[in-house]
Amino acid sequence: MNAPWKSGGMGNRDPFAAYICDDAALDVLRPVVIEMGWQPEKCNKGGLRNAVQSLSISASPAILMVDLSESGDPLNDINALAEVCEPGTVVIAVGQVNDVRLYRDLLSSGIHDYLLKPLAAGQLRDALTNAQAIFSAPRHHEGDGEHQHIANAIVGTRGGVGASTLATSLAWLFATEHNRSTALLDLDVHFGTGALCLDLEPGRGLTDAIENPSRIDTLFIERAMVRANDKLAIMSAEAPISSPLMTDGSAFLQLEEEFRSAFDMTVIDLPRNMLINFPHLLAEVGVVTLVTELTLASARDTIRILSWLKANAPSATPMIVCNKVPQGTTEISKADFEASIERKINFMIPLDQKAGVNAAKLGQTFVEANKGSKAVAAMRDIANAVMGVSSDNGASLAGAGKGGTSLLGKLDLKALLAKKPKATEPAA
Asked: Is Glycoprotein among this UniProt entry's keywords (predicted)?
């Protein structure tokens, strides 16, 4: 069932109502409500089920805050709330459970935000101001056509394979050659190079988002993202290496949600550790570009990550990109590599060290600085393939081979090590 608050007209209604279970939370909420110019009497005692009973016989407000603390089945109760809410209502949930899966499910059901208890005045003020802006914003109706969005995650099998170089290049290609508004999200919070490749200062956008996910809204995205050009914006960080990453991942989910509305494309530079810690990041990703090399370690980790993707992101289309392919011999031949992972390599990018140096000197992405390079031609083919996958639901890559497999299948590590290296095939 589609929640009715996701679309619909404005209507004549009260600006705000809340159904909160405990007095402590109500004591924090009422002064903020008065500050917003609303009636504190609309802050009612009682949780989500009380809201359902009340709204079944009265009009729903523009902004509705409901407490899930006493709900045994929040998602089922939210569906009941959807039956009695008028179109256009912005719903903010409050609860005690700090669980990213619940947060994701609530957002998917149509809830605008989820606030954790104990409530704080600043947190409430930000959430209510954002909800007011959302309610007042122009809405797209069914006849307006659906906004198409493509999300592409770039994952390196090993450090140094060039995943970040490819991520920035693809983002630049989507923005300039495909004329798509593009968001580049660099999730290497401490050592990311996305802004560096674009000759930009990273800003505090990503750090602020992680520290206070409730602030993330359309206005936050506009202010926090750093513009590379009219079509390309980046969100990244250079967090102090003495500060560990403290997040449950809710900020990343909220960012992805905002990107889907604000941009045509999202490119996520996704380090392996983030892939493992926050698997929900790939829930809405259409293509996972797995960047690897023709080495034994990369073959092993390609197998492992493909297997992980098959179990955790079955709706995403994997694309295998072998980067920095040298002329002559390699540790593993292309044929042996493909036999080990039981699927074809989709694209081969030849090694071009001079091009990499040139890009660094110019402060430009690899593709922008080296338009005549064979490596850039391969990257351009990859960008075209990502765009193609969006239109044919993965058919162009579906025949690339099976998903992940066991390391003890066709990959015989000792046998490969004992082989004399073969010359690699010409790069695609």
From this structure: no
pLDDT at residue 146 in the model: 54
Q: Is 304 exposed, middle or buried (0-12, 13-18, 19+ CB in 10 A)?
A: middle
* For the chain, counts of helices (H) and of strands (E): 18, 13
Distance CA 287, CA 390 (A): 8
Cβ atoms within 10 Å of 37's Cβ, excluding its own: 8
Looking at the domain covering 150-400, what would its CATH class be? Answer: alpha beta
Which tens digit of pLDDT belongs to each residue from 183-237?
Answer: 999 999 999 999 999 989 888 889 888 988 888 888 888 888 899 998 999 999 8
Token pair listed for 187: 């999730």
How far apart, in whole angstroms, are the C-alpha atoms of residue 411 and residue 422? Answer: 16
Please state, as a whole number, how many other Cβ atoms lie within 10 Å of the Cβ of residue 211: 12
Structure tokens at 410: 């066709």
All structural domains of the chain with their residue ranges = 16-133, 150-400
- Hey, do 16-133 and 150-400 end up sharing a CATH topology, with the first three levels equal? yes
Residues 6 or more apart from 53 whose CB is under 8 A from it?
none
Judge whether residue 399 has pLDDT over 60: no
Predicted TM-score of the model (pTM): 0.61
Give the tokens for residue 62.
């523009």
For the residues 237-242, what does the mean pLDDT come to? 88
